[in-house]
């Protein structure tokens, strides 16, 4: 059950096996769903009941909120839309149905295998939030594979995947946009989370000491 998840191995979850991997945008949305404890509990509840009315769904969680109307607004405007966007539930005409793609079972199993383990690096909310962006996952996957890699090389790899063509076919300005997003946003977040280290002078990204230690322990298991 996803609501039981308290810690996760972020580095392991950055690279999803082929049999469990949806497309990058869907995986972004799936990890975004899991990046909130309330949504994880909501997901488990819907998985257990299969189908419910929206009013009954509000009733199921009403005991935890002093204001029913505020709970209904949070479910309707915040949490359910994320589950719908991820393709996990269908919500229409006041009825909410748990209906994930068949392949999501493998994804759940993959997440479960890397949650609440000794090598877990981060709390669930923070960890899944870090994973809820393809570019951050790609940085982690590349440094895990190469141990260290230049940021321009990371930008090239991300651009190739996003544009689905060779690097020579991608406009240089688009590659630069990817580089700048990595430099200003994604790599600093991963560095703040103690997953990578960035050497600005060499423009080099590497696994942090903690990240390398956890990667080694994962291999040993």
TrEMBL record:
InterPro entries: DUF7344, WH-like_DNA-bd_sf. Residues 32-90, 128-205 form the DUF7344 domain. It comes from the Archaea. This is Helix-turn-helix domain-containing protein.
């Amino acid at each position: 059950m996803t609501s039981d998840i308290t810690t996760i191995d972020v580095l392991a979850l950055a690279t999803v096996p082929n049999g469990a991997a949806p497309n990058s945008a869907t995986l972004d949305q799936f990890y975004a769903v899991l990046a909130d404890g309330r949504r994880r509990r909501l997901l488990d509840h819907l998985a257990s009941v299969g189908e419910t009315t929206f009013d009954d769904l509000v009733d199921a969680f009403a005991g935890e909120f002093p204001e029913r109307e505020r709970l209904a607004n949070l479910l309707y405007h915040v949490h359910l839309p994320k589950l719908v966007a991820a393709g996990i539930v269908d919500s229409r005409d006041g009825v909410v149905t748990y209906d994930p793609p068949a392949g999501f079972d493998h994804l759940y199993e993959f997440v479960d295998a890397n949650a609440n383990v000794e090598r877990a690096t981060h709390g669930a909310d923070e960890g899944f939030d870090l994973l809820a962006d393809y570019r951050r996952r790609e940085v982690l996957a590349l440094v895990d594979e190469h141990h260290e890699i230049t940021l321009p090389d990371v930008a090239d790899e991300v651009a190739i995947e996003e544009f689905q063509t060779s690097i020579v076919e991608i406009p240089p300005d688009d590659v630069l946009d990817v580089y700048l997003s990595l430099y200003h946003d994604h790599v600093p977040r991963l560095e703040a989370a103690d997953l990578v280290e960035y050497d600005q002078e060499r423009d080099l990204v590497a696994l942090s000491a903690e990240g390398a230690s956890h990667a080694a322990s994962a291999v040993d298991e």
